[in-house]
């Protein structure tokens, strides 16, 4: 069974690529500290891997 969740990003916190990744980390995975601006890490987060 797949559980769907809704996450809301605050666009006021996104003014650059670095801030985009910080907002993703803040909302989706605050305990995952190695994301930085790593696209592969973002894909892992979106898939639910971390």
Describe the structure.
With 50 residues, this protein is mainly alpha-helical. The protein has one domain (13-47). It has helices at 17-28, 39-47. The protein is globular.
Integer average pLDDT: 82
| Tally of domains | 1
The H/E string reads HH
Uncertain runs:
none
Strand content: under 5%
Helix percent band: 40-55%
Radius of gyration: 11 Å
Task: List the quaternary state of the chains.
Answer: single chain
Largest sheet: none
Q: Terminal Cα separation, in Å?
A: 19 Å
Shape label: globular
Class by alpha and beta content: mainly alpha
DSSP helix count?
A: 2
Beta-strand segment tally: 0
Short key terms for the protein model shown above:
50 residues, mainly alpha, 2 helices, globular
What is the element layout, followed by pairings?
Elements lengths: L16 H12 L10 H9 L3
In short:
This protein is mainly α and 50 residues long. It has helices at residues 17-28, 39-47.
């Amino acid at each position: 069974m797949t559980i769907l969740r809704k996450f809301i990003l605050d666009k006021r916190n996104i003014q650059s690529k670095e801030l985009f990744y910080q907002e993703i980390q803040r909302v989706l995975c605050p305990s995952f500290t190695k994301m930085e601006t790593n696209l592969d890490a973002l894909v892992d987060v979106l898939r639910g891997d971390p």
